[in-house]
Amino acid sequence: MQNDYAEALIAHIASGTPFDKALSGLGSVLVRKHHLKLLPAILRLVLRTLESEKGVLKATTRTAQAKVSKTEQARLDKALADLGVTQETPTEKIVDETLIGGFIVTYAYHEQDHSYKRVLTNLYESITA
Description:
The protein is an alpha+beta fold. The chain has helices at 2-14, 19-32, 39-54, 70-82, 116-128; strands at 59-63, 91-95, 103-107, 110-113.
């Protein structure tokens, strides 16, 4: 349902309707149909769609060290592939000194956290639950 609303909003914007008018029209339809709770998800979907069409989306990898082992690189590549990153996708590599180890991958508003902190937190939660 939110995909339909997102596609309709994108179509209105593409047809030349001013953004504020298209957005207020969407708001009134959502209020009339009692779907106003869907608005944040619809706007995220519209933003993601418009950015991907313009090629703005880029993948970000945050690692603890500039150089990673072959095993870690394989895990990093798999995480990128799971998020839908291709060879053509621009990728920004960041060395994050706050990480003890592992990595965090972000793409298209999705994140995979494979940092040591996340692993230890999950272990702690599974033991104490």
